[in-house]
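Try this one yourself first.
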């Protein structure tokens, strides 16, 4: 793919993610206009809005997969892995704000990938509990839900907060609320 075509595709996907998060009924024409490309450019690559949405979902999942890999959830020390994950996933959530619940309803392959990623994160939370980093009297499901909500809050309610600072806040809040110390 030519460099300009790759830039256009990236811009269309990111713009599509933002506009579809704000308005799930956003038209292809509106997305093309906001992305600064011709409507035919978008239609040449994506036959339907659903095809564009599926590509946005896959891009979000690709980014999340990279964060999970880079965090080394099962190899790095728990505090290090947790901070790496949170610091990486906040920008992903900001860049790809489409709802994963909607993704799971509309795209079976995306749903399967999302579930695999979710299981990786749940195994990490279980590890954090097993190793005494998080309290053992709190279920892994609860700890995971709290982590997810903290990440969402940091990413979207405080969009101007830098990812490292937001990660510090999320990790501190999680550990002080559910930690053993």
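Now uncover the answer:
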């Amino acid at each position: 793919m030519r460099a300009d075509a790759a830039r256009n595709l990236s811009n269309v996907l990111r713009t599509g993610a933002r506009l579809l998060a704000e308005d799930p009924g956003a038209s292809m024409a509106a997305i093309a206009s906001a992305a600064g490309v011709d409507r035919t450019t978008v239609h040449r690559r994506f036959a339907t809005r659903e095809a564009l949405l599926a590509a946005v979902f896959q891009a979000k999942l690709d980014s999340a997969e990279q964060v999970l890999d880079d965090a080394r959830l099962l190899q790095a020390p728990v505090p290090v892995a947790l901070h790496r994950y949170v610091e990486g996933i906040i920008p992903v959530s900001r860049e790809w704000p489409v709802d994963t619940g909607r993704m799971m309803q509309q795209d079976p392959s995306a749903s399967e990938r999302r579930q695999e990623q979710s299981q990786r994160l749940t195994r990490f939370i279980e590890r954090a509990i097993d190793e005494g980093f998080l309290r053992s009297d709190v279920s892994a499901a609860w700890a995971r839900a709290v982590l997810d909500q903290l990440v969402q809050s940091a990413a979207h309610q405080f969009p101007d907060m830098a990812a490292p600072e937001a990660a510090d806040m999320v990790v501190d809040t999680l550990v002080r609320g559910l930690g053993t110390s």
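Discussion: The two ends are 52 Å apart (CA to CA). The CA atoms of residues 134 and 177 lie 9 Å apart.
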